[in-house]
Amino acid sequence: MKTEWIIYTGGVISVIGTIVVLFGTLMQSQTSRSEAESLRAKIDSLHEQNEKLENIATGGDSYLKMFFVVAGNDCFKIIVQNFGDYPLSEITMWFQDMNGSNKLTNEQAVLKERESIRKLIDIRNIPPMGIMELGDVRFQVDKILGVYVIVHFGANNGTSIQIIRMKWIKDKWTTANKYIIGRNREPIYDIPKDYPALPNKDDTFNNFY
Prior knowledge:
The protein has 209 residues and is an alpha+beta fold.
């Protein structure tokens, strides 16, 4: 056999050997990558389960809303609902009727707030999207003054505030709500088109008009 053929054959064998090694390495790499991806998926699943269990225990990002439901003769019954995917516990609430507060002195306003806090309502637990009627609580309204109420909630996931403004317009009540949920979340405004809102959203809820 000529020398060049020996060299050529040796080169081919060398290349084939290199390809076999590379192929084996590639297959091993793909197997390792597949195992790594499978392990990562399992870790992500466990993380999601742990986060869900933690949210169930702490209440997660669920929050409470209070509704007025007409009970007759300008009187409302009060409904509280849990908006969220997680149960809330240790729930308490108290609310301030702000109508007329703009005419009070500072001392009178402080006394009025203290009286409101004394009327703390213990609700305890509400499941996800659950509704509870406060059967022994009624709220009397004045169609001329409207409704200006600040609701304070406490629960296992912290505190929140709801500001309710209602006005009697065209023979019906129109309601606007502002929700302040936690320190790091933007307020939620719920202002229907037929509500006489002011140019500034916060003025709509905070001003007497």
